[in-house]
Amino acid sequence: MELRHLRHFVALAEEEHFGRAAERVFVVQQALSNSIRNLEEEVGVPLVLRTTRRVQLTPAGQEFLVGARATLALAAQTIERARRAARGEVGRLSVGFVGGLAFGGLPEIVRRFRELYPNVSVDLRELTAQEQEAALRGGQIDVGLMLLPVRDPGLESRALWRQPLVAALPAAHPLARKRRLKISDLAPEPFVFFPRQIRATYFDQVMRWCAGAGFTPHVVQEAIEVPTLLSLVAAGVGVFLPIEFFSRLSLPGVVYRPVEDAPIVEIVAVWRRGEGKSPVVRGFLGVAQEVLAGNETTDAPAPKETFSRE
Length: 310
What we know:
The structure is a single chain. The protein is about 40% helix and about 20% strand. It is an alpha/beta fold. The protein folds into three domains: about 5-85, Orthogonal Bundle (Arc Repressor Mutant, subunit A), CATH 1.10.10; about 90-160 and about 265-295, 3-Layer(aba) Sandwich (D-Maltodextrin-Binding Protein, domain 2), CATH 3.40.190; about 165-260, 3-Layer(aba) Sandwich (D-Maltodextrin-Binding Protein, domain 2), CATH 3.40.190.10. It has a five-stranded mixed β-sheet with strand order 4-3-5-11-6, with helices on both faces. The chain is rod-shaped and about 105 Å long. The model is unreliable at about 295-305 (pLDDT under 50).
């Protein structure tokens, strides 16, 4: 039994005339008549009563009409679901993200994606960059959002956002009175920072930046989470060099100041090679790029260097 047979039958039942029904489904009358006859043979009972003036349904035909309409409606819904899936409008997407993005970028991306793709279920997982790369390779997540590009040949990445480092200072610090700092201004200050084993690339490149200004930061306290580090800044323990979007995290006792020649950190999306053509992944990447492009820093000084994995 083919869907066209059901369409022909429904048209005949509603028009009650072979000629009008044939015109409605764009076939000749003989083809419609053959289609109905084949349908009756397959069902095994008469479905229509043919008279010279009109066509009437048999009791079996009336019951069959209910099912035929329901089947056609279900088929239309199924086709539409397939088309929406091909456009990335339905499905499931698992996204890994580094914790810092929860304070800038990620909420806007997820909010906009859910507005545009309400039938896509989004699963968010906070993971380090290394954990994201492993999860991508293992198929546990579909897209990763992290800092710095990846070198794994099995993964592809796209830069979404470029952000400079800024100085986070205690609000009462004398340097807080300046509108813009030089990195050398921080040379005599105690620093709070990540342990190197947690953020090795970030740590090493900040150290190289400072070394270029003639000093090595004196790290007096370490913590693994940015909010903790900023709380230490508020307590006057030391200064910190976060990415600019962390300045959205407003803590009493902390001020942020731009720093000349600050390195630029790239926020990138990463996915398995070849899966960027997936409609859902492609839709998410498009939304992420659109949202973050609107947040791009446009008045930052020219960067001294851009962070990269080594």
